[in-house]
Structure formats: C-alpha cells, structure tokens
Specification:
Length: about 120
C-alpha cells in the first residue's frame, strides 16, 4: 500500500472544498493547488465581494479548523489590500482504520469538513 503524499492529501482537500463552493454557486476566478501557496481559491459571485479561500489538509479530524493565528493576520492584511474577504477551510482527512496510520491510495478514509470559517466578513 502506498501512502498519499502531502501534495496528494492537499489535492484531495481542494477537491472536497471546490465541490462545496460550486454547490454554493461560486465561480472560480483563480485556483492554486500548490502547497503553501495562498489563497487556493479566489471566488466570484455577482453582487458580492471577492473571497479568498485558504485550504488546509490536516490529520486532525477532531478539530480541523485550527490554524496559525499569526500567519492568518499577515494574510488578512493582504486580503484587505485587495478588498477581499477571507474564508478558511480546514479539512481533516484520516485513515478509516486508525488515525495513527497514514491515508493510503485506494483505501477508505474519513473526512471532517463541515463549513468555512469566515475569518473576515
């Protein structure tokens, strides 16, 4: 069995978040799936301000919405300059048999993703 790489886990989280955003009626102005490049999604919806969505894949399925507060402050400043809102999507992904095991390709896994944390309104 082959464990998913950090980039593959990130791509999986991006797919989960992207699907939810499409269901919410958003159009993607830009998508960036490279690790540690932010934002991952720049959204457009007629009559609404631009939204930057930050996606983080984590093995923490109990509390996937945790993020680095200091880093987020820096990013909020960047968004302000662009008159954009900031949403955070923490996506917990864990092996279905044991959270201590990595997520393997073509094996069952749990996903913990409820909704977006709206960092700025």
């Amino acid at each position: 069995m082959q464990a998913l790489t950090e980039q593959e886990l990130h791509n999986l989280a991006m797919n989960i978040v992207g699907k939810k955003l499409q269901e919410m009626g958003y159009e993607f102005v830009a998508v960036n799936s490279q690790l540690k490049r932010h934002p991952q999604f720049v959204l457009y919806k007629k009559g609404e301000p631009t939204i930057f969505v930050l996606v983080k894949a984590t093995k923490n399925i109990q509390n996937p919405q945790e993020y680095d507060v200091i880093w987020m402050e820096t990013f909020k400043e960047h968004a302000l300059k662009s008159n954009a809102k900031v949403w955070f999507a923490g996506v917990g992904i864990a092996n279905a048999e044991s959270v201590d095991l990595p997520v393997f390709k073509d094996q069952p896994y749990y996903v913990a993703f409820e909704d977006f944390l709206k960092i700025t309104e």
